[in-house]
């Protein structure tokens, strides 16, 4: 410590790069309560999104689903030519249904995957009605969302996803930086290893009040963390926002970076950080009350002692007067508890599945975030319908799978129970149109008995009767008898 007087004491940091004073610069003082007044609001295409499916497709767009379908079919062709596996190609309708079932499976995170298709009463009807377990696993094995499994293509997809997030929401004045970890132990160009965790590290920026994710990026080992943060926060920088982070991000260089871009930052800093003066970290600098402040060139270092005698160090480029320090502490306490909320939400309901492909782990997290963002927009646009996250995911799955469920309800090759379940979930009738193999018979009773198309094939039920509408053979148990008056009345009413 260098001191020319007791009121102008100068403290040097551990790395000897920063000098701190007990007195702030008069031209840098600002009051926190009057700075940040902006609120979040939807914009762009999100303003007209009414259904859950429309909200989800703001982030995983129809163009993305089309590309996924084409790339998955290419992977299927590659597998069928090199192995004996016979996997049928998919289409966009089935791909949407597959994504819906994948999302819905996150509600049953701790269930065995195949048990969800159990037909003995322990399964979930919508899984069997939408897609078979074997088909689901085959599509999951062949699923592709990038042309190649390399980092460049994955980063392009993430940039497109971030653009969709940024185009549909204007964030409020309070923004938080977060770090998310995906467990993965296989070979990966972006895998990190610490004493406690092995996996993929992601960084995200989101609205502190709505939990809306504005952008997400991969933390690459060959890139400086501040560069990733600068890219994520570039669309949000300005004097009307406060960016809050925890001690995993906060450093003097990051604060300088935000100061140059005329943005405000507030974050907790580690007690062994080189930016701290030794006397400050040891508690030798005291003042009236539990809070002590040191000031440097447009930076403020705050030491606050909690009720349990633990000390928290905060670093910011907000240089407030002593009377405004309580506002800074209250603001950080309110926002710090919101850090990592999205990560916790993704772990509660996650579509992630066990796989050896590192790129799929990233895609699963993007889908989880898309679901959270979709619910936020859905809630803002339709304030009258308040759904829990669980019910919202159910609603979205049915909307995404409905076209494919209708098609499944009309497939005569499927078991009757599956067709009836698909029709019930899609809220449609199971009446089928005429197919190529349906026999046209002029009379209501045939000379030769044929197998009933509504009964399971294992029963092998034969009948001489057929439907007057679709000309399919039907047994008496699966048909209803109407008189001419009722048929005429029903037709006129329709």
Automatic annotation (TrEMBL):
UniProt cross-references to Pfam families, sorted A to Z: DDE_Tnp_1_7 (PF13843)
Top-level taxon in the UniProt lineage: Eukaryota
PiggyBac transposable element-derived protein domain mapped to chain residues: 52-374
Record's protein name: Uncharacterized protein LOC113468162 isoform X1
Native source organism of the sequence: Diaphorina citri (Asian citrus psyllid)
Gene: LOC113468162
